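Protein of interest.
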Amino acid sequence: MAEQEKVVVTSGLKRGDYRRLTYWNMFGKKPVILPVLVMMLLIGAACILFGRHSTNAYLIGIILAACPVLIIGMMELNIFNVLRKGQLEARTTATYTVDRTGIIARSPAAQYPLAYNWRDVEGVYENSRFYIIFINKIQMMTLRKTDVDAAQRALLMQLVKKYVPAQKIHLK
């Protein structure tokens, strides 16, 4: 394989990135979730305010209003637990090799490299700071845009567009 068909990038998360990615994954990847949570909060508040004479309406209001708060609270607890372990950058830094066969991630934190064919890719996303490659609904590889130079970026996008089905590509 020609060297021009390969992108090699070392990238990892910085301290503030984990929170940003968690919130992006929850609210940015599927923009419908935030309006649903806001609607739950508003309907819940209305049920609490106007349903005082009905125990059922009042309880439903408390449940609806509490759900968004609990969801965000659980996300923050998870973020706190991940950041509390420390050494986030060391645990998340990997060297990614992207070519026509797929993606290989090599990390000092993992004993063996992780290799995935393009057919294994669930989706490729781009946000303001990262290219994010989902292997499944939970596992993702993040390439910080500042770690990818212009030539690598062009080749990376070319490989993604060539080997990932269009419906799985969500680029800006």
